[in-house]
Amino acid sequence: MSTIIGIAFLIATACMHHAMLMVATSVVPERLRHSRLLPIVVFSLLAVIHTLQIAAGALLFIALHHGLWTDAFGGSF
C-alpha cells in the first residue's frame, strides 16, 4: 500500500512541477515578457506556487496518515 502511495506522490509531484512552470510563465504580463525582470518575476511566482504546493502536500500527508493509520501522531487528531 505504501508503495502505491509513494508512486502516486512521485507522479503528482512531476505533474505539479510541470504545471507550476506553465502557470508561472503564462501569467506574466505582456510588458514583462521581453524585460530583464522576467526571470525575477517567474522565479517569484514559482516560489509562491511551490509554497502552496508544500502546504497542500503537508495537508495531504496528514489526511492520508489519519485515514489509513488512525493512531498516527499519537492519535492527537
Structural commentary:
The chain is mostly helical and 77 residues long. It has one domain. The chain is 73% helix and 0% strand. The protein is built from two helices and no strands. Helix 1 packs antiparallel against helix 2. The longest helix has 31 residues, at 38-68. The protein is elongated and about 55 Å long. The relative contact order is 0.09. The model has no long low-confidence stretch (mean pLDDT 76).
The gyration radius over C-alpha positions equals 17 Å
- Rounded to the nearest angstrom, the distance between the terminal CA atoms is 22 Å
Characterize the largest beta sheet: strand count, sense, and whether it forms a barrel: none
Number of domains: 1
Question: Which range best describes the helical content: under 10%, 10-25%, 25-40%, 40-55%, 55-70% or over 70%?
Answer: over 70%
Query: Can you write the helix and strand succession as a string?
Result: HH
Range of strand content: under 5%
**Tell me, what's the shape?**
elongated
Number of helical segments with 4 or more residues: 2
Which class do the helix and strand fractions yield? mainly alpha
Pick out the low-confidence regions: none
Q: Could you tell me the mean pLDDT?
A: 76
How many beta strands in the DSSP annotation?
0
Task: Write out key terms for the chains shown.
77 residues, mainly alpha, 2 helices
